[in-house]
UniProtKB/TrEMBL annotation:
Name the UniProt record assigns to this protein: AraC-like DNA-binding protein
Boundaries of every HTH araC/xylS-type domain copy: 214-315
PROSITE patterns: HTH_ARAC_FAMILY_1 (PS00041), HTH_ARAC_FAMILY_2 (PS01124)
Stretches assigned to coiled coil: none
GO molecular function, one term: sequence-specific DNA binding
Keywords, in A-Z order: DNA-binding, Transcription, Transcription regulation
Pfam families in alphabetical order: HTH_18 (PF12833)
Length: 323
């Protein structure tokens, strides 16, 4: 239990690095210099985006910090200028512009920020997301934590571009828009992690089978609110047999029914995290996405995300109301 308490205190201290420009008491700065050269925080409700400018600095965890709160957070670092050398759970990695770095705050040991040029300018975009908000279990994310991820033309590139757009100083968001974009950001982080971890052969790029598979998935996403959406109705709409439909999904490691359920759960989760829908009853949100029985929805939601729909809504509301 003591080890768990230390991990939670560590996560809290590092999370303050995102949201509070004055917090230094939980770390030791190796050279004793000031921590920040400038900071800006974008309110995204369920997620926090900090755009921070630093002087070259080395932050190191102290052995006996004061517990300032309760946090269970994953952080994504996107270097905009400069290089980050981080040690996470004893694992050291270096990331620079063009990379992403995802880690569990509770296991971050130290971090060194270095300039790439003659000047001392460093700038990072830092995203903090509470673990209960992410549609990924801790075990599934573990292989990626503490490692740099090169940005390519796929989902990682989309994620980096989205974060850069949100980091624009000219961007102005009202609370409801910030909340919605926060949920989009969470989904993109989850999609990026899944894409990087995904393995196994899929359909040959550009093949007719892949084109059909993509068309079918698009069709399903457009009809998620239809309670009569089933593998048979999908197969009929595309003039193929149910068995052939199942083979298309099996080639990508999915089943049709499971993919439909997962997509519906993701839409419901996004609505539950939307501050503009806080007064809409949970059973109405569930029905909106094809779940006719509240108990069935609650069980599926807890299985997928580890918390009940009510607990998730409460957690996202608590996070978005943090000062």
């Amino acid at each position: 239990m003591r080890g768990e308490g230390i991990a939670r205190r560590r996560a809290t201290a590092w999370s303050d690095w995102i949201t509070n420009a004055d917090v230094c008491r939980e770390f030791a700065t190796v050279d004793g210099s000031g921590l920040f050269a400038g900071t800006r925080v974008v309110d995204l409700g369920v997620a926090a985006l900090g755009v921070k400018r630093f002087r070259p600095i080395h932050l190191q965890w102290e052995t006996d910090p004061v517990w300032t709160g309760d946090a269970d957070i994953v952080q994504l670092i996107v270097p905009r200028r400069g290089t980050v050398n981080a040690t996470w759970a004893g694992r050291q990695d270096t990331v620079s512009v063009g990379d992403l770095y995802l880690h569990d705050l509770a296991q971050l040991d130290e971090i060194r920020l270095e300039s790439d040029g003659d000047d001392d300018a460093l700038e990072l975009a830092l995203v903090a997301i509470p673990k209960p908000v992410l549609p990924l279990g801790g075990e599934s994310m573990a292989p990626l934590l503490g490692h740099g991820v090169p940005v390519d033309g796929g989902v990682s590139g989309l994620l980096k571009g989205f974060i850069e757009d949100l980091s624009d100083e000219k961007l102005s968001l009202n609370p409801a828009d910030g909340q919605r974009l926060g949920m989009v950001l969470v989904d993109l982080v989850a999609a990026c992690v899944s894409s990087v971890l995904e393995s196994g052969p899929g359909p040959r790029p550009g093949s007719q089978r892949q084109t059909l598979a993509l068309r079918i998935r698009t069709y399903i996403q457009r009809h998620l609110d239809d309670p009569d959406l089933t593998p048979r109705s999908v197969a009929t709409a595309h003039h193929i047999s149910v068995s052939y439909l199942h083979r298309l999904f099996q080639e990508e490691g999915d089943t049709v029914a499971a993919w439909i359920r997962d997509q519906r759960l993701q839409r419901a989760r996004r609505d539950l995290g939307d501050a503009a829908l806080v007064d809409v009853p949970i059973h109405e949100i569930a029905a909106r996405w094809g779940f006719g029985r509240p108990a069935e929805f609650s069980r599926a939601f807890r299985t997928a995300y580890g918390v009940s729909p009510r607990e998730f809504r409460s957690e996202t509301a608590r996070w978005s109301s943090r000062p």
